Each structure stands twice: as structure tokens, then as C-alpha cells.
Amino acid sequence: MQIRKASAGEMLSLWEYDDLSKASNTAKYFYQNIESGNAVFWTMEHDGKLIGELYVFRDIPFDRDFADGKTTAYLCAFRIEKEYRGRGLGTRLMETVLADLKAAGFRRVTIGVGPEEELNVRLYHRMGFTEKIKDCHADPCAMDADMNPAPDDCFWLLAKNL
Ligand SMILES: CC(C)(COP(=O)(O)OP(=O)(O)OC[C@H]1O[C@@H](n2cnc3c(N)ncnc32)[C@H](O)[C@@H]1OP(=O)(O)O)[C@@H](O)C(=O)NCCC(=O)NCCS
Fold it and tell me: Which of 70, 135, 141, 146 has the highest local Cβ count within 10 Å?
């Protein structure tokens, strides 16, 4: 099991797009931010297959409570492939990413979770995301047809100090 940073092209393949022109606006947004260095795609690889993903956005100009490019970074699209869940791999991936952010000078990280996602709320609490910043109604990394943050069901923005 190897944890590493992956490329924008690997993200596109994992999301099952052959090329950028056919990708959703959200995939394009992730791709462009990884390419520009504002986002990092962290993955977990097993037997040549990407089985985990966690994305870091250093700056979210739409709402700096999420990330301000200097001290606070935003984590999103955290996923471990189904058959590998519940074995501590998500925790390992998260710990690696948090250590990297701390070494890069970030002092705070945020993550979003739906209040009804009880398992994820408990998991994030265990991982130290114990501060609730606010209720949110738009996902800053999911783009609508005009490349603006898409309206979303209410979710909580949680934070953890590094
Ligand atoms: C959230 C997720 C990345 C955690 O990865 P993981 O490798 O299963 O995590 P770990 O094994 O380190 O820890 C297991 C924890 O995840 C929780 N969890 C949440 N959903 C789970 C699922 N579908 N299967 C197993 N565990 C799950 C468990 O309750 C456990 O928390 P606990 O220790 O408080 O009981 C993974 O479960 C997942 O991909 N879920 C679906 C996508 C998702 O909901 N992502 C988060 C919101 S974007």
C-alpha cells in the first residue's frame, strides 16, 4: 500500500473521463487546480490500482473560511474503495496528508460533512475535526453549469488545528 501525490491526468482517469473536453465542470475544476498547484490529489495505491483519494485545496477564493492559501487548507472528496473500507486505510491517508500540510506551514484544516452522515461525523470527530465553523449550502469545489459553486444540501464545515 503506497500513499503518494498523483497527477491531474490520473484524477481524470480515476473519474472515468478519457479527456478533459468531455469531463464534467467539477472534474475540470479539480483538474485545473491540480495543474496550477492550488490543489493536491493524494492517493493510496495497491497492486498498481488507485484505491483511495483525498484532495487538498490550498485556497478557496469563493469562501476563505474553507481555505485561505496560507494557514487554512480545505480537504474534500475523501474516498476509499468499498472493499478496502474499515481497515484503517482512510485514517492512514488522512494522517499523511495532515503531516504534509503541517510541514508546509498550514495551521488549520477544514472538511465538510452532512449532518446525516453519522459514520463520517464520528470518524472526523475521532480524527480531530471537533470545531464546527458553520452550516454551508454550496459546495465550493462542485461546479454548476456556469463554473460557480453548486448549491448543495446543508452540510457542516468542520475544522481541526494542526
Ligand atoms: C470515509 C472513508 C474515506 C473512510 O475510510 P476507511 O478506510 O473506511 O476509514 P478507516 O478504516 O480508517 O476508519 C473507519 C471509520 O470510517 C467510518 N466509515 C464511514 N463510512 C464507512 C463505510 N462505508 N465503511 C466502513 N467504515 C466507514 C467507520 O465508522 C469508522 O469510524 P469509527 O472508527 O468512528 O467507527 C470511507 O469509508 C469512504 O470512502 N466512504 C464513502 C465516501 C465518503 O462518505 N467519504 C466522505 C465524505 S466526502
Answer: 141
